Amino acid sequence: MGVPGRGHRAGPRPPPDPRGSACLQSPCAGPASERLPRAFPKGFSSTFTGERRPKGDRIFEALGATDELSSAIGLAGEFSSEKGHTFVEQLHKIQCMLQDVGSNIATPLSSAREAHLKRTSFSEKPVLELEQWIDSYSEQLPPLRTFILPSGGKSSAALHFSRAVCRRAERCVVPLVQAGEADPNVAKYLNRLSDYLFVLARYAAMKEGKEEKIYIKPEL
């Protein structure tokens, strides 16, 4: 999602492009090296709508958490690919959807014009797709009778880690939705995504024949 180089940090910065950082990897942009936005001095950055806000603004907190989530899912995808899991294609699609999530977050509704909204809107369709995937994997899993700990092999543990990062991203986005700055479907997507990652972590452990560690109250 970001290209490191001299004078630039890795990670997403909302560029002056209608699809945000997603366009760095799509036909609507030229080579990424030509599209890198220049760093702003004195701790400020810009949204897609042109607003200058402090880098500690909750919009950039949400963008950063979303970028971390995509990176975590990428790592989980690599572990899962090594084990031959077919769900890696779903993980790749989710990473692409997170680019669209970032575009929506980088376009505050309070200052967005109609042209912005047409290019960065986020529909409910991806949410419904996640729910279908959740149901599909859940049907194949044994009942959950106790608390499980992040474990079950590298694929499963990495997916659990992604789930935890997803919950944090959701916590960053919810205040934006409540303030009328982001589309409610973005928060819904992250909420369902954390459930998907939990179910998928269990599924990966099952397919690999790995044991899921359970919570046992420590003796004091």
UniProtKB/TrEMBL annotation:
Residues 42-204 form the Cobalamin adenosyltransferase-like domain. Pfam families: Cob_adeno_trans. Residues 1-11 have a biased composition (Basic residues). Keywords: ATP-binding, Nucleotide-binding, Transferase. The keyword Transcription regulation does not apply. One of its GO terms (biological process) is cobalamin metabolic process. Gene3D superfamilies: Cobalamin adenosyltransferase-like. It catalyses: cob(I)alamin-[corrinoid adenosyltransferase] + ATP = apo-[corrinoid adenosyltransferase] + adenosylcob(III)alamin + triphosphate. GO terms for molecular function: ATP binding; corrinoid adenosyltransferase activity. Residues 1-52 are annotated as: Disordered. InterPro entries: CblAdoTrfase-like, CblAdoTrfase-like_sf, PduO-typ. Converts cob(I)alamin to adenosylcobalamin (adenosylcob(III)alamin), a coenzyme for methylmalonyl-CoA mutase, therefore participates in the final step of the vitamin B12 conversion. Generates adenosylcobalamin (AdoCbl) and directly delivers the cofactor to MUT in a transfer that is stimulated by ATP-binding to MMAB and gated by MMAA. Belongs to the Cob(I)alamin adenosyltransferase family. Homotrimer. This is Corrinoid adenosyltransferase MMAB. It comes from Melopsittacus undulatus. The lineage of its organism: Eukaryota, Metazoa, Chordata, Craniata, Vertebrata.
